[in-house]
Amino acid sequence: MSDQEDKPEIEIAEEQPLASETEADSNKAKSVYTDDSGSGFLKGSTSAQQGISSLVSSSAVYYERLPMLEVVFDRLVRLMTTTMRNFSGENVEISLESISSVRFGDYMNSIPVPAMVNVFLAEEWDNHGIVLVDTDLIYTMIDVLLGGRRGNAPMRFDNRHFTTIEMSLIERLVMVFLSDLSAAFDPICPITFRFDRMETNPKFASITRPTNVAVMVRLGVQLDTRGGCIELLVPYATLEPIRELLLQNFMGEKFGRDSIWESHLIKELLHTDLEVEAILDEIMLELSTVMDWKVGSQLQLNAKPESLVKIVCGDIPLFMGAVGKKAGNVAVKIDHIINNEEA
Q1: Which residues form the Flagellar motor switch protein FliN-like C-terminal domain (predicted)?
Q2: FRET label pair with 215: which of 119, 162, 229, 339, CA 20 to 30 Å apart?
Q3: Is the pTM of this model over 0.70?
């Protein structure tokens, strides 16, 4: 045998890293952190990916602010304070607790069952909204309207359906609320809110898509030591016809109008002196003819003694009248008012 055949074969293998080192490096390369919402992000991911993930997972609703809505609901609070006192016969305090934007589906899913979800129709806008009376206020109003004792907390019967009498009483309350809501919108836009139907299951009160944004207004109603809340939900699609009006900034009381100043201005305008002129006739002449006029030149008019003259104020024609005399003075008797077609 040759010397090469006697030598043993030696294989040189690459040095393998320890298992613990490999796992540590792998975990280091893929270290993950969790944000407040529970979503995991790789530390090596870009800020753009993090922003998109945060935007998708965010449940917050951002929508344009409508300044005039606050004024409308402040007016609603004042109106309801009086009407609710007349309706219940008790001393009622109404407060505006919050105005916020919510997704319609999220809000409807948060309503406990059974509930009184009242759907109303905005006739001029041809769209709907929802009025929700919470359970505490339902039993408080039923107790008050049916002659319950003052100061006692109303009895509650959880997990049972409302009776026909209870639903009828709350329907009357909602109709009073809608009447005041219509009056609150009157200075901006005349609108009629009409009661449509009452649902005890929120699933049957779907008036818009679950992802649509709506304005949610929460009003606190307090009767002595008892009370509850009324929540008004109006989709932004319902308010779209008057969106431009609601974007205006509020100035002054009564939506920018001051009735005292208006009446004073009208009174002063009626005592204003105006200068009016009576025009006998109007003719067109060439400039050369006018330049040839001298003292003693005569101007031939087309008017006759019985012709009517035009009375104007500045450039605005007002009346047509006949020339005559009264108390030794030349006078004009009004024959008729000049309309736009004659002017």
Answers
A1: 268-338
A2: 162
A3: no
